[in-house]
Amino acid sequence: MIIAILGGTGPEGSGLGLRWAAAEHTIIIGSRLAEKGQGVAKELKTISPESDISGTDNLSAAHEADVVVLAVPYGAQQPTLAHVKEALTGKLVITVVAPVGKPAARVYRLPSGLSAAEEAREQLGENARIVAAFQNISAHHLADIDYHLDCDVLICGDSKDDKQQVISLCEDAGLRGINAGALQNASVVEGLTSLLIGINIRHRVKAAGIRITGI
Prior knowledge:
CATH superfamily: NAD(P)-binding Rossmann-like Domain
CATH topology: Rossmann fold
Helix content: 25-40%
CATH architecture: 3-Layer(aba) Sandwich
Strand order of the largest sheet: 3-2-1-4-5-6-7-8
Order of helices and strands: EHEHEHEHEHEEHEH
Structural class: alpha/beta
Strand content: 15-25%
Radius of gyration: 16 Å
Largest sheet: 8 strands, mixed
Shape: globular
Distance between the termini: 29 Å
Number of domains: 1
């Protein structure tokens, strides 16, 4: 599978890309500037030389991909989606965006009253295939592909088939994906990111996560 990671130069996007590349997916690191995407791809290749990893600009990456991962800061979501919208038609878009305000350890409510994932669907149109996932995964150990991440991925979306595809990608990254219901539920999942930031701060750790028990 060809996976484009828009904003893939950050620790979250590049870490996920490295893990998926190790699972033999083709990874394209997208960035606002093609040179930056190429630079990070080159760095990842030094970690995993046999992997199929390349870098380019966000629009080119989106055009080439089967699945697109949106891993930009919330403030860059609207302009990024506007720039690549025509390349996303019919494609599964996985958003890992989690809005945080100041202080970052308190839940931030968007003025729209929606989640960032729901805003993304509005920006792309009602027929967009949007799934929210990976918001609560710390980037601290992502790039260490031998490290076992002791947390689950809460997955929100309105298509059972699309969520199942994301669950499979979770497994490829060494994680357990949990179907957390409709895309509307993404506001709760996004808010958990701020709670985890606060837990990390108070307990002087870097990788607090969510684990669902009883299933």
